[in-house]
Amino acid sequence: MKTLPFNRSQWIAAALIPALALALMASPVASWFDQQQRLSALLIMTGLVLFATSALPEFVSALLVLALAMLLSLAPAEVVFSGLTSTACWLIVSGLVIGIAITETGLAQRISDFFTLYLDNSYTRLIAGIVFIGILLGFVMPSSVGRIVLFIPIALAIAANCGFSPGSNGHTAAGLAAAFGSHVPTFAILPANIPNMIMIGSAENIHGWSPMFGEYLLLHFPVLGLLKALLLIAVILWLYPDKPERSTPPSGQTRLEGREWRLLIIMLTTLGFWLTDSLHGISAAWIGLAAATLLLLPGIGMVSTKSFNQKVNLSSILVVAGLLGIAALINYQDISAILGGHVLDWLPLEPGQNFLNFMALALAATITGTLTTLAGIPATLTPLAGQISELTGFSLEAVIMTQVLGFSTIVFTYQSVPLMMAMPLAGISIRHAARLCLILAGLSVVLLFPLDYFWWHLLSWI
Fold first, then answer.
1. CB 134 within 8 A of CB 418
2. Contact 181, 132 (CB under 8 A)
3. Which residues, including other chains, have CB under 8 Å from residue 319's CB and lie 6 or more apart?
4. Domain ranges of the chain
5. How many other C-beta atoms lie within 10 A of the C-beta of residue 68?
6. Residue 152's CB: how many other CB atoms inside 10 A?
7. pLDDT digits over 233-288, tens only?
8. Which of 34, 132, 308, 340 is least surrounded by Cβ atoms within 10 Å, i.e. has the fewest?
9. How far from 96 is each of 170, 331, 421, CA to CA, in Å?
10. Each residue of 72-98: pLDDT tens digit?
């Protein structure tokens, strides 16, 4: 008797999807939703299982979710396909073009040669160096997107200098270190990520309070920045063991060529507009798109039509569109709002139980992020801060700050646009990022959340 040609991931998905569907429909949660919302929840769950298990090619999973959402009339086309019109997709396109230009002009190789001299002595130093360079960029570039677009080609060139070919453990580890290092620990730096700024803006508008830069850094960076970075390095080294071996000695420093000068001017101009976006109000996506267009123009740019056609991957854009479509469907069907309304009923909050209250709020913020994406955490929880303060006995400021534990803990890749954008730029399957997210989130809850409680207690915040 012939068996169906399923691989292990497909069997896991085939078992998980009906099991989770039955669990959802049999639970009291199902009664909170109408029929359309239940169908949406089932489709969202199916999509997330397919992405998490890689049972299907990622772009096929994305197309399946988008097609079923339309066939079942779960939301209008402008909602389902909002990912294709979002700034995230155009950031990916511009990032891919910039990455091609940095690589083909030799500028990435020139910069990476310098860093390779200090990072290729050991694999641990290489991965740690890439992670900490990403964190340092967080202090000078207030945009994960900008950091990732500029740093990933350089990090991959460093990996190539160390003898790691695409698809090897070392290449994958370097790409993940650059993406996660530029993004995850920098949530502990006040202006470095969008959720941080949404939280501060909401807190100031609703409650009339916002933290100072140093105050925020002292409270969050030792644990959620430094210790999380060390944890990230350890997990990457464990998941992707390898050994660096310099393939060719770094080339001697020569004068920049004309193509490199043009690219450097375009990149510095782009960086200048990114750094001053609060003054001119132009989205980072459109700044990046303008730079990409210049790089493609004959006579000015450095990316040929042939290179663009060969190296800009349409499937990566479809994957991001599918994941953003899931997030848009969650919001359109009010699934997060309905669940958010029951959050306070579920939380075991009681004055005097400081550790339990702290962990409950941190976990509530983390779970909220899986339903609303990271940017939705402050939008959902900040209005409830006053009521939560009364239930816990915590200060209003402490309640608001617990959100940082939630949006710095990424459980699924779709929660974070910068991570979704980083994987196609690095040429790495999203399943690698998904696995790293889950492991890092679990370790954060078990190890870093309790450590953060004691740090807050030491600083007299709770």
1. no
2. yes
3. 58, 59, 61, 62, 420, 424, 430
4. 9-24+35-74, 87-316, 327-458
5. 16
6. 29
7. 999 999 999 888 765 555 555 666 777 788 888 888 887 787 676 677 777 678 87
8. 34
9. 21, 29, 10
10. 888 888 888 887 877 667 767 777 787
Q: What is the pLDDT of residues 414-444, one digit of tens each?
A: 788 788 878 888 888 888 998 999 999 999 9
Written as six digits, the tokens of 432 are 């690698």
Identity at 230, one-letter amino acid code = L
Structure token pair of residue 170? 């070392």
**What does the block give as tokens for 175?**
């790409």
Q: Say if CB 323 and CB 51 are below 8 A apart.
A: yes
CA atoms 70, 72, 76, 82: torsion sign: negative
Half-sphere exposure of 411 (CA within 13 A, CB side): 18
Find out whether 424 and 96 touch, Cβ atoms under 8 Å: yes
> What is each CA distance from 180 to 133, 159, 264, 362, 422, in whole angstroms?
11, 16, 25, 21, 9
